[in-house]
């Protein structure tokens, strides 16, 4: 089905999805597979933030750094070196950059929509009534459902002079062809740490300014400390418990000066703001149809992702992914989108929805996440503090990663740690965290254990292959006493 111009598009589809990022694409695909006609609306690039400005480019930048370091840690292959321009070129290939421009080619994603039969509308959408939207002045309507998947935008706080200084956000940092000599970063979360490591490896002098006492505050403290030590080894300066009071830039592209709460002044060539995300709901018209936003501006939804407060004979407005604020991770947004696509399909066909397929209940168990620094942090479920805050009788089991034979094969003198948090009453794993080189692929087994509430006595029979990193599971269970 061809890409449509709103001026000539049909007026009605069964389902309309707003936002053609990875989450919106999943919602549209699932609804279409249920036999419904689907239109998807996008004002910028099909594929969204993840494909062009976040997940894909940042990991494309990080991988050569990780691969080079991994090689250097293995006897016999220590000669690997990093080529900064090669790293940037690889990134450009991954995001389908058009020549030397700042434009990107989303024809691959558009072609996929065309192939499966989903209509693409280019433009800005706004809700104007029940199942009704305007797209750049043209009114369109959904027979069954509207699914909002507009995501988030980078938060730029109201620090005096910050906006006028035109700081980088993740968009500029992941797509820049220039490696600044000095880079200052506001924030100490995942984006800040990953991109600090990227630019430090590429040759920048990097300084992180973080308001709290430590980096990666959402992670277990031992994991955050491992990354903190690594950043310091990389030459990254960390200004913790420090606030940016004001910002100024010398001319339109000159150096940036940050006045700090310590009374010091920091000067850099670029300033990256990486302190959080703001829901992309401005002008969307959610409240005009009764939809509710929380105090942070995210769309309130039920466990089935139905927008709360919306009137109608039956639910028709849904919000999935970052815009609902449940879990700001692409894979969890896609999970919500698949569930909602199935839910909409069942309701449109007059079938009773199967909650096992149409309610993304695993959100409550704790989302899996990987921080793609060196060392990596791979985690899922509850941390020790979260388990105790919920009043659970939790036991923590820690083991060094090099207790698994496979770790020593990955790197000489392998450094890392693994932790599981066990519910002593239920005999199941509540959460797991792995820190070290190449631990990302360990998290899915942990996710199965956590979401599936697999008893420890059963996990003991899931024998890890020797000699692999997965042997850490045997060591953790032995330490627990299974």
TrEMBL record:
State any single GO MF term. Answer: dihydrolipoyl dehydrogenase (NADH) activity
Show the InterPro entries listed in the entry. Answer: FAD/NAD-bd_sf, FAD/NAD-binding_dom, FAD/NAD-linked_Rdtase_dimer_sf, Pyr_nuc-diS_OxRdtase, Pyr_nucl-diS_OxRdtase_dimer
- Pfam families the record matches: Pyr_redox_2, Pyr_redox_dim
Family affiliation:
Belongs to the class-I pyridine nucleotide-disulfide oxidoreductase family.
Which residues are in the Pyridine nucleotide-disulphide oxidoreductase dimerisation domain?
368-473
- Residues noted as binding FAD in the record, renumbered to the chain: 59, 322
The protein's name is: Dihydrolipoamide dehydrogenase
Q: What is its EC number?
A: 1.8.1.4
- The residues the entry assigns to the signal sequence are none
> Top EC class per UniProt?
oxidoreductase
Q: Which organism is it from?
A: Pedococcus badiiscoriae
Give the cofactor binding note. Binds 1 FAD per subunit.
